[in-house]
Amino acid sequence: MHTHTDLSDGTTSIEANVADAIELGLEGLGVTDHDTTTPFERALAAADGTGLEVVLGTEFSAELAGLSVHVLGYGIDPHDDTLREELIRLREERTIRARAIVGRFNDLDVPITFGRVLELAGDAPIGRPHIAQAVVETGAAADTREVFDTWLADGGPAYVAKHAVDPTHAVELLRGAGGVAVLAHPGLFGARDGLTGVPDGAIEEMVAAGLAGIEADHPDHTGEHQDHYRDLARAHDLVVTSGSDYHGQAKDNRLGSATTFRAEVERLLARRPSRS
After folding, report:
1. N or C: where does the chain have the smaller number of CB atoms within 10 Å of the terminal CB?
2. 72: Cβ contacts below 8 Å, ≥ 6 apart
3. 107-142: per-residue pLDDT in tens?
């Protein structure tokens, strides 16, 4: 229910992800690249006739108190004008932010160029992983994980805040496009700053706006995170999802390492708002 491709910050194609999901015996595959619906048609074509169900969505970028919050939106209409405009704006903001981050690295005597970052991003929205790849190429770090740990994580010396909507408005946008919203990996929020996850109060505001689920099971969540967000989901009648957050070679997470029961996927999608 949570995967990425080379159309955002993953390293594998959507066709490869579909093929791997089939080989693993998965019944379905969530397609959730960052701030884009570009993989939708290719995902449907790749899965056609295979028996694999693709659940089309996006991982929408939001921000709370200057820190990233990600909201997964499933069943969205990719032609919804309001959502499309916001996704275009987010993509433009990513470019502006990337230029600023490259400048920060240059000030730190790491000689990366924006041109090389563009080459690494290709057709995907520019993200911090592309910048991290460029840094690794200079020899300043052994791998992209080191780049994030040393410079790029929220609050790091090369971090640049992005202009993004608040999580509650993200829920409203995704619902307005006919989809259901799920809070992604809430336990990772603010980890660098000693925070323990998205504040419960913020989640309650998202629930009031129509939040349908919470990704309580994630490879980087602790047992305490899982228990806390499962309890919170029960308290607010939210669907609990599990996602591998697969990025190919960009992360250690493996496809299929966290899966959601079909019944829960169906219960989640049944919460899509009716549209006149």
Report:
1. C
2. 1, 2, 30, 32, 57, 58, 59, 60, 181, 182, 183, 184, 215, 241, 243
3. 999 999 999 999 998 878 788 889 999 999 999 999
Q: How far is CA 140 from the centre of its chain?
A: 27
Domain boundaries, the chain: 14-95+166-269
Tokens of 129: 């992983």
Could you please state the CATH topology (level 3) that the domain comprising 14-95+166-269 is classified under.
Answer: TIM Barrel (3.20.20)
Q: Which of 205, 204, 166 is nearest to 86 (CA)?
A: 166
